[in-house]
Amino acid sequence: MSNRPRSWILAGSPDFEGDVLSGEAGSILEQDPDTTVGIDVALFSIDVLRRQTDETRMVLGVPVLAVEILSPNDGHEEIREKIVEYLRTGVQMIWEVDPDFRTVRVYRQNHEPVMFNRKQTLTGDDVLPGFEVAVADFFPDWSA
Fold first, then answer.
1. Which pTM does this prediction carry?
2. Does domain 4-138 have CATH number 3.90.1570.10?
3. Distance CA 122, CA 99 (A)
4. What are the residue boundaries of the structural domains of the chain, listed by start?
């Protein structure tokens, strides 16, 4: 999935100003005390990115979108705690990508989680207006 989310999100949301960071993007969600997380893929607004300094090692601020890709090393409780923390600190949308079941579960503020399977299309709703991608595109079929 490496560069796909970046190109999907930025191409599918031409009016959004910001950037996508990936590979356990370090983020300080809140300070005093610091709440820090490593996010598999994170979309940050230009406003958050402009507040960073040359000394910044982790992005100080909350992403608009956080994507967590489940792996065998991830405990379900650990992921649930991260999602609760994301929602509590103001992340607008979270995608929980499950490669084993080929699904994407979407979490949003004040909404019930919604599960999308590979036959469905994931949209950005009002968080990323105009954005859409087939869930199947998250999981390429390398056997063909």
1. 0.87
2. yes
3. 15
4. 4-138
